[in-house]
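Researcher: Good morning. I'm working through a list of sequences from a screen, and I'd like to move beyond sequence-only analysis. For each chain I'm collecting a predicted structure so we can compare shapes side by side. This is the next one on the list. No need for commentary yet; just the structure.
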Amino acid sequence: MIHTIFKTEINHNQSPAIDSIVFGAGCFWGVERKFWSLPGVIMTSVGYAGGDHSDPTYELVCAGITGHAEVIKIDYDPLKIPLLNLLKIFWECHDPTQGMRQGNDVGSQYRSVCYCDNEDSLGTVKASMDQYQKALQEKGLGVITTEIKSNQPYFFAEEYHQQYLDKNPNGYCGIGGTGCEFQA
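Model: Good morning. Structure tokens for this chain:
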């Protein structure tokens, strides 16, 4: 599969100097669009993670029988874009207090998730969640329900989902934030 933005093969087997993170924040089409143009982001793709099926497909995930969330995987150069900058966008681009939904998109596949590759990133994510929770509380908003784990298997979504909103600029994606800012 060729990435329509980066014009290279979608490949997440980068050098050791590149870090990765997986975000689920509702419809994966719009979440991917939030990240693919950021300086320091090397690669993005959409897929499925957080479930217990060894071969998830869009149909199975949407049926709610695999336990997977719609996610994006981001490879980034931490010297050009720190993880905290990515987390700021993640927390602000959706409502992490909604549980098994984002806006009109309802189901466990739309839940808020963050999956890390290592313990350092996991600690950074958890600390950022605590900071964002304080900001939400100050505005009288709910409790974060985001699932945060490390080392979750990632499965590529079907090719037609990759960079969907680049291929279909008028496509629907109902992600939206709380209006609350995260101080990175």
